Structures are given as C-alpha cells and as structure tokens.
Amino acid sequence: MAEECSHECSSCGVSGCGDRTVAAPSTLETNKRSNIKHVIGVVSGKGGVGKSLVTSLLASEMNKRGHKVAILDADITGPSIPKSFGVDSRLTADADGINPAKSASGIEVMSVNLMLPEGDMPVAWRGPVVSGAIKQFWQEVNWGEVDYMFVDMPPGTSDVFLTVFQSLPVDGIVTVSAPQELVAMIVGKAVNLARSMEVPVVGLVENMAYFKCDDCGKEHHIFGEPQGEAVAAKYAIPAVATLPMDPNFARLVDEGRVEAYNVEGALDGIIDQIIATAAAADEAEE
Ligand SMILES: Nc1ncnc2c1ncn2[C@@H]1O[C@H](COP(=O)(O)OP(=O)(O)OP(=O)(O)O)[C@@H](O)[C@H]1O
C-alpha cells in the first residue's frame, strides 16, 4: 500500500498493492425495447488482421444456427461492417430510439457509417467522443430481442477497449490474429487486458493462415507457419479456428454479401464455445 494512501484505488498508480479494490463494472442499461442476452467482443491487438471479417462471419454462422444476432460496430473510426453486409440504408428513429439496419439474413447492424451523409466521410473523433458514441449505440438503439450481440472492437487496447469492457456486459471475447510472431505477441496484450477485467477469452481465430493453390491444392503459408494452436495453448484459449487467405472473402465483402461465404465448419468450435460460455453465464446468474 502507498505510504499516504487516500483509498482512491481507481486513481492510484501503485502497482502490486495487496489492498487494491477494483470497482465492479457498472454496465449501462439498454432502452426498454432492447433485451440483449449475450455480448461477445471481437478484438485484435493490431489493425488489418481481419477482425471485422471475423465479426461478420461469426455473426452469420450464429444466425445460421437460428439465434437472433446483432452487430455493434465499435470500430468507430474505421467502420467496415455495413459494407460487408451491403447495408447502406438511412437509419430511422422513433420515440424510443434509433432502429438498427438489417442485413439480408436479418442480422441487426448499428454503425456510425449508417449515420453519415456519405460513407467515405472521415470520423476524426477523440477517444471520449468515440466512447460516448458506443455507449449511445448500446443505450439508444431499439435492438429488440437479441440472443448474441457481436461487438467489432477497434484494433488495439485503447481507452475505447476499456469503455466497452466497463460499460457493456461482455460475456467473452474472440481474438483475431494473423500468423506473424509479432501479431501473436500483440494478441497476448489484448488477452491479458480482457482477463484483467475478468472477461473470458473464448476463442482465437488465426486468419490468413494459408493460401490454397487452385491448381495443385497445396497450402502455402504466406505469412509464415501458423501458430494459432501454440498461442492458444500459451494463453489457455479453449477454441481455435483457422481461416485461409481467400480472394472470395475480399470479393464478397466488396459486394456486400459476406453472409454468402461458406466457412465449411471452420468456426464451429468457436461458435460452440461462445454458446457454452453464454450458458454458463446464464447458469451463474440463476
Ligand atoms: N482471410 C482473408 N482473405 C482475404 N482477404 C481478407 C481476409 N481477411 C481479411 N481480408 C480483407 O482484408 C481487409 C482487412 O480486413 P478487416 O477489415 O476485416 O480487418 P480489421 O482487422 O477489421 O481491420 P481494422 O482493424 O483496420 O478495422 C479487408 O479488405 C478484408 O476483406
């Protein structure tokens, strides 16, 4: 404990103090038209590794299993979810709040890009404004009944990361990596931050792990040997998935038809783990 302790643990910089108390996160209420049962954050320690693509695919796979699914695009300054799903309709609102957009298969989507006059307008907001927007998406959108909400997080472990974990009742995170050693190390930062906030890490997706040659069928490890299994073992992550580098991803994202991609069961283990984590959370609440 610091020599002159003010008992203000939240503002104290002394590490390793045995008397530190961590304030329980006070999650925000949603509006009366929302009943969001489970929230899964999709994170990556680094930009451009395919986090938004994985968010879209996880949401689509969960939707295909018959669950009601929504995506909150918390990547406020680099929002790409509406484009992936071909959603560009103007949002409507009523006395209760903003109505989310809906994808072709019925996934609800809320993103700052749906509020801009033009999709290519930049969003150069400072951290607190970004955090405020995410809170508004949670509180002021008429989400309705949602079994699983996926939150596409901004890359890295910024203050927005903390906002989401402190304001939304996140059940677990899925972390996305590409197979470079540095990226794997960065995954560790996101995992450790989530754990320090007592949020379980339910899965690791190693994206762009290989490229399969159309002609000979051989798998080429363009970014080096896959290391998802090793990283998952190191951080005790229960489910691992591997996705190839596939031009069809980029094409379907460009066409706004990400839901049409067939992942051929590659994400089943992670989807199962998300459902198991949600069931455990429900049981603990009862
Ligand atoms: N496995 C893949 N095969 C081919 N293209 C991919 C793959 N994964 C992602 N991409 C493409 O790479 C680009 C970046 O992907 P994405 O936007 O999902 O990354 P991100 O991690 O969310 O980026 P940021 O953190 O900057 O938002 C997109 O154009 C996407 O279509």
Can you offer a commentary on this structure?
One of its GO terms (biological process) is iron-sulfur cluster assembly. Keywords: ATP-binding, Hydrolase, Iron, Iron-sulfur, Metal-binding, Nucleotide-binding. The protein is an alpha/beta fold and 286 residues long. The chain has a single domain, classed as 3-Layer(aba) Sandwich (Rossmann fold), CATH 3.40.50.300. The protein is 32% helix and 20% strand. The protein has an eight-stranded mixed beta sheet, sandwiched between helices. β10 and β11 form a beta hairpin. α3 runs parallel beside α4. The longest helix is centred in the last third of the chain and has 18 residues. The radius of gyration is 19 Å and the shape is globular. The protein starts with 33 loop residues before the first strand and ends with a helix. About 2% of the residues have low confidence. The site of adenosine-5'-triphosphate has 20 residues, from α1 and α7.
